[in-house]
Amino acid sequence: MKIGFALPQFHHQASDVARAGEFAAAIEEAGGASLWVGDRNLAAVRPEVGYGGRGNTIPEELNPAADPFVLLGVAAAATRRVLLGSHVLVAPLYPPVQLARSLTTIDLISGGRLLPGFGVGWSPEEYRAAGLDFTRRGARMEELLDALDAIWTSDPARYEGDQLSVPEHHAPLKPARRPRPPFYLGAMSERALRRVARRGDGWLPLVVVPGYVDVDGLVAQRAALDGLARAEGRDPAAIDTVLRVNIEAGTSTRQVADAIRDIHDRTGIEHFMVDSMYDVHTVDGSVEHARRVLELAAKG
């Protein structure tokens, strides 16, 4: 198994963002496999749609949010081995040229360790703040992936779609990973799973320990994804999985490690990312929490 951890980005941990490099180095030294960021451009005071597309509230833990690109750059410079991922960037909010530039820079700094994970998001207010149509976010995501592919694999590069237009331009600076960094995509709905099946290099599902761990649901979703991939003429084995493990307040490290091992044994998922922002409030506490999870998960 590979177990990674979220960088200090949200809630109380965001106040310790100056220690992100120290945190990254400590996780690598402890044996962590990867480091991760999420994405929250804003948390609306009176949201039309709530967290995860449900209800009409957003957890206060998401109110303070550090920049994901800066954090990944800091982590890239502070480490040598761990993978660096986003679970997930709300990619349609970003212009493709600027998104490609930021991710290319991070991938080059890290020597090709970037795992860019994208999702369409659930917040109408975030799209409104960016001057974009929330109802067309799925189509915009499709075009964004096409635009990134063009920018990362051709020089000169250009892209022309219904929502996005990138003029022909010089694009000699390419990511270290060739032909491009992999596309990891968040997906729960059938429509989103179809997008993963068509063009995803990886799938990014989610559980919450202990309140929402639906192993049978994960197995069923993966089976559906595999079937959709075959229908697209793709080998399902070419689509990786990284499972996000959010931890509820008051959850013991033993519970976290046991959940990871159980999910691994029942699903075959090999790569996990643990986010302790709801339960651990300091960088020191988060490092110690990560060390303990790694130790317990290894002992079995």
User: What helical percentage do the residues reach?
Assistant: 25-40%
The overall pLDDT, averaged over residues, is 97
CATH class: Alpha Beta
Unreliable residue stretches: none
Overall tally of domains: 1
Q: Say what the CATH topology is.
A: TIM Barrel
Topology as H/E string? EHEHEEHEEHHEEEHEEHEHEH
Q: Which structural class do you get from the secondary structure elements?
A: alpha/beta
Shape: globular
* C-alpha end-to-end distance: 11 Å
Q: What can be said about the biggest beta sheet?
A: 11 strands, parallel
Number of continuous helical runs: 9
Q: From the coordinates shown, what is the CATH architecture?
A: Alpha-Beta Barrel
Radius of gyration, in Å, reads 18 Å
User: Could you give the count of β-strands?
Assistant: 13
Q: Report the β-strand fraction as a percent range.
A: 15-25%
Summarize the structure.
The protein has 9 helices and 13 strands.
What does this protein structure show overall?
- By secondary structure, the protein is an alpha/beta fold.
- It has one domain: Alpha-Beta Barrel (TIM Barrel), CATH 3.20.20.30.
- The protein is built from 9 helices and 13 strands.
- Strands 1, 2, 3, 4, 5, 6, 9, 10, 11, 12 and 13 form an 11-stranded parallel β-sheet that branches. Strands 7-8 form a two-stranded antiparallel ribbon.
- Helix 6 packs across helix 7 and helix 8 packs across helix 9.
